[in-house]
Design goal:
The protein is of the alpha+beta class and 317 residues long. The protein has one domain. Helix content is 24%, strand content 32%. A 9-stranded mixed β-sheet has the order 1-2-8-9-14-6-4-7-16. The protein has a 3-stranded antiparallel β-sheet with strand order 3-11-10. Strands 5-15 form a two-stranded antiparallel ribbon. The longest helix has 16 residues. The chain is globular and about 65 Å long.
């Protein structure tokens, strides 16, 4: 089904499914020139990342609202819409996450490498993880809040689940022009509108799942522009990178959508909010809300310092 999201980006939605890239390619009615390309150079496919942190990025208007509310709520302009109400978070992949994912990938290729082969293998995965899923920049604003997913689930469960616990479900796959978005929905067990959505797996097959405080994600395409090719040497049990002419492609990522009723605020202590927020550069295209504008790092740092000063002076208490 084709429809627009809250930021007026049109995509094809597949509810109740997390579809692999190969599944999407087999859909006969999808018209996507990037998805149909067959000249993409070899790259590390289905690399499993285990990510413990998530991030929420906003503009100046959203930043001030978060500190005013001491937490996160659905933007007021969306509350009146007929869409379901979500608080959106992206996986926040660290350099350590990439290194660990590379080690699992290499071990799956060569289960019996010698100590010398392991020692002599230079890093390669970081030459392919160039999509927005791995960048510090964001299209959504200059202010990035980063939390442990486990802690965020704990806060949400304590505030909204009334002792009944929460649930995680496979919500949908959305295919945009150059982007595949896998959405996981989090909701109180007492909210039954997601009962017909599959439970998010703990392990086994699937694009992503949650286990032991981390979201595991089998990345289908880590770059939106491929300028390198993966070369696998089965005799030396090693991999290397060969330069390749530029090829544009689709990239994929995982979003965690927390179900929010109108008026709900996911409260977080303000000291913790200041600990978890940083400024970031904005990437193209800008997807800001309302009257927000793109800021320089200096402007964003000044605004954040001003808010912190107001808080310390008691202006936000």
């Amino acid at each position: 089904m084709m429809r627009q999201n809250a930021r007026e980006c049109t995509g094809t939605h597949f509810e109740r499914h997390h579809l692999y890239l190969s599944d999407l390619k087999e859909k006969p009615n999808i018209k996507n020139v990037y998805l149909r390309k067959n000249n993409i150079p070899a790259y590390p496919e289905s690399v499993e990342f285990r990510v413990q942190k998530v991030s929420h990025v906003t503009g100046q208007q959203g930043l001030r609202g978060i500190f005013l509310d001491s937490g996160f709520r659905q933007p007021l302009e969306l509350v009146a819409s007929d869409q379901r109400h979500f608080l959106w978070w992206d996986l926040s992949v660290t350099s350590d996450d990439i290194s660990s994912a590379e080690e699992r990938f290499l071990t799956s290729l060569f289960p019996r490498r010698s100590a010398a082969q392991i020692r002599n293998q230079p890093p390669v995965l970081n030459q392919f993880t160039s999509s927005k899923a791995f960048q510090k920049e964001s299209s959504y604003g200059n202010f990035c809040f980063t939390f442990s997913l486990k802690d965020l689930l704990r806060h949400y469960g304590k505030q909204f689940c009334a002792g009944q616990g929460l649930a995680l479900h496979v919500y949908e796959t959305v295919l945009y022009k150059k982007e595949i978005q896998y959405t996981v929905v989090v909701h109180p067990r007492s909210v039954n509108i997601y009962d017909h959505y599959p439970r998010l797996p703990f392990n086994g097959d699937g694009v992503c799942g949650y286990n032991n405080g981390a979201m595991w994600w089998r990345c289908q395409s880590p770059a939106e522009t491929y300028e390198n090719q993966l070369d696998v040497n089965i005799f030396d049990k090693s991999v290397s990178v060969i330069p390749h002419h530029k090829e544009y492609y689709v990239w994929d990522h995982v979003c965690v959508a927390f179900h929010m009723e109108p008026g709900w605020v996911l409260h977080i202590d303000q000291d913790k909010l200041f600990e978890r927020v940083n400024v970031c550069e904005m990437s193209e295209p800008p997807l800001l809300r309302g009257s927000d504008t793109k800021l320089s790092l200096h402007e964003a740092e000044s605004i954040l310092a001003e808010l912190k000063g107001s808080s310390e002076a008691g202006g936000w208490r």
